[in-house]
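Record type: monomer structure entry
Structure origin: computed from sequence
Chain ID: A
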Amino acid sequence: MMIRKSTLGQRSTVARLIAAIEHRKLTIFAHIDHAEHARQAELELPPINVVVFGNPHAGTPLMAADPRVGLDLPLRMLVWEDGPGLAFVGHHDPRELAGEYDLAEQKETLDRMAELLDAISAEAAGS
């Protein structure tokens, strides 16, 4: 997992993550607030959010090459709090998908995805 420490709190980091994704005109498919779901079940959990997003122009050729990659797409990023005011942004390196699936010929797309996630996580973390 690629992890970046945020210079901001967890909520601000999530807001910046969503803004960075929207600025790039990517589709947000889901925003999961694990802590809120835990509260609804009368359980406690520190703030943990997952944002699921992507672009069909990038993901579709990968799934056409190997449909099994649909289990790992669309892309997702995690923002969690590890103590008051201490937040982190994490994501998997999409280049690792080439080892799990038949995507050797999709290296350029996976490289671009990795660069995109790095840029988005930096923007979200305020670094």
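Annotation 1: Strands lie at 2-5, 27-33, 48-54, 75-81, 87-91.
Annotation 2: The chain has one domain: 2-125.
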